[in-house]
Amino acid sequence: MALRPDRPQSRSEQLADRSATQADAFLREVDDALREDQVLTSLQKYGKPVGAAIAAGLLGLAGWLWYDHHTKTVAGEQGEVLTQAIDKLELRNLKAASDDVAPLAKDGTPGYKAAARVLQAGILSEQGKTAEAAKAFAAIAADAAAPQAYRDLATIREVSLTFDQIGAEKVVERLKPLAVPGNPWFGSAGELVGMAYLKQGKTELAGALFAQIAKDKTVPDSLRRRTRQMAGALGVDAVEDPGLQVSVEPAAAPAK
After folding, report:
1. Which residues have a Cβ under 8 Å from the Cβ of 212 and sit 6 or more positions away?
2. CA 233 to chain centroid
3. What gap in Å lies between CA 216 and CA 204, rounded to an integer?
4. Which of 95, 110, 157, 190 pairs with 59 at a CA distance of 20 to 30 A?
5. What is the pLDDT, as a whole number, of residue 144?
């Protein structure tokens, strides 16, 4: 059966639909206007503090980037000065090396300042000014602002220069905390502690410590060889490889 065609809208129905459409459009415009007004009100109310926070963040980022660049630049310049001083030191130009690092020793960053002071103290020792060198190393060791590694090194150098004056007991007291495996200065501090044990007549402790240093692969080879010989002379086996022979210089023949 054929469907009956839809009844055409009357004039009143058409006007009602048009009015509903216009009302809907008006409501959307009012809603959009309200939203815009809310955004404008929020911007007026919070815009300044939000903008200030953003500006502060950008300024902080810019400041950090400048500081990072400046720090790296300064560190590079100070590193170059220290390198040149070391080169002069190797050529035995001691005064020039000391003069080069003088500004670093006074105003350098903590690490380079400590390194420059250690170098200057070492130069004093090379010049035979033992008392001045020991005093300079003691000052570095007592400087809380210096990196701990440099303070420990300065302590070892000071003790080595004053070994006979301060006595074996004081040597052990000051260096025993550093004379432990895993410490960066184990070899250097341990050798001095071992020598102090010998002066105290504690040969077993000395031999065991020398052997421990000799077997530690993180210790420089020259120091390992030296402590291996010391351990062997004290009757302690410090040879890890059975095929490795300990080289001990023969005693000089008596004069005829």
Report:
1. 181, 190
2. 40
3. 19
4. 110
5. 93
- Phi/psi of residue 39, nearest 5 degrees: -65, -45
Contact call for residues 223 and 187 (beta carbons, < 8 A): yes
CA distance 21 to 44: 34
The pTM assigned to this predicted structure is 0.63
The values of phi and psi at residue 234, to 5°, are -95, 5
Residue-level pLDDT at 250: 36
List the structure tokens of 28: 């959307």
The first and second tokens of residue 106, run together, are 């006074």
Average pLDDT, consecutive stretches of 10 residues, N- to C-terminus, the chain (256 residues) = 49 52 53 53 53 50 45 63 77 83 83 87 90 95 92 94 94 95 94 95 95 93 93 85 41 38
Distance CA 81, CA 229 (A): 39
Helices 203-214 + 221-233 axis angle, to 10: 150
Q: Running DSSP on this structure, what letter comes out for residue 162?
A: S
- Using CA atoms, how far apart are residues 140 and 178, in angstroms rounded to an integer? 16
Q: What is the pLDDT of residue 254?
A: 39
Q: Are 239 and 246 in contact (CB under 8 A)?
A: yes
